[in-house]
Give the backbone structure.
Amino acid sequence: MKRRRFLSTTFAGALAHASHVFATAAQTPVIDSHIHLFDVSRPQGVPWPPKDSTIYKSALPGRFRKVAAPYGVVGAIEIECSPWLDDNRWVLDIAAKDSIIVGTVGDLEPGTPDFGKQLERLHRNPLFRGIRYGNLWNRDLSREIGKVEFINDLKLVAATGLVLDTANPDPKLIHAVVRLSDRIPNLRVVVDHLPELTPPEDSIARKACDADLHLLGERPQVFAKVSGIVRKVDGRVPLDLDFYRDRLDRIWGTFGPDRLLYGSDWPNCDQWAEYPDVFRLAQKFISEKDPASAEKFFWKNSLRAYAWVKRDADQPELRSALR
């Protein structure tokens, strides 16, 4: 009887703790640090997504609110999905009309003649929080960081307090981020979609990639985004956290609670799983940690990374995140 009572008490305690954690996570305001905006009805069209894509449907702030607000999402950071220069302004104009957008990360090419001028122009808008560069639009960070003009332009990004987001990680890109961080230690970098990184099969290459990640994990200016969690395997998309746990645990072990951000990759994620499923996977993962880590993951770390702009009463206070 004593053993049965002990087990019952232990189980009840564990259940109460789990319930508390889930309740805390549910009450935590959420800043989704990775969404895309585009309007397929524009006369000039859009460079992405392609017309034959299942997500070829206008993705604007009002639609995002409907899918994300039920899960406690009170703000979002738009990440560029167009290499067209004018689309930086288009996104900022769209963002200005809806307070759920707390920041945008645009597209400018470091190393081009007008980079500094364009950066200064866009930076006048407080919603403009940085640029994106990586395995996207046929660009190669590894090649470009050897060019003086490219590095000098990214030094401008660092000097203005803006961020560099990367795109679509592979071992080559991760190594390039290490080299870039060596060259510009004060540049804040956000590694997007880190769960998508497939470790090399070759043992030597895998050790090299692990070593690079370890170096990035030691650098306080480098953040990692838990976006792009889901993937298709053998024709299906697993929605069980255990399937993704190994990669997520490795990321957590590398960057810890202070430099991981939640991002959905909406609406791109809809190609594999809808927003509720993507959010629940991330929430279940972080709910196994302590409540303070959930707050950091869901909004405080994104504030440290992007210094986003509070635009609505429902969005958390800036000063509380800086304690």
Summary: Residues 29-321 form a domain with the TIM Barrel fold (CATH 3.20.20.140). DSSP finds twelve helices and eight strands in the chain. The chain has one domain: 29-321.
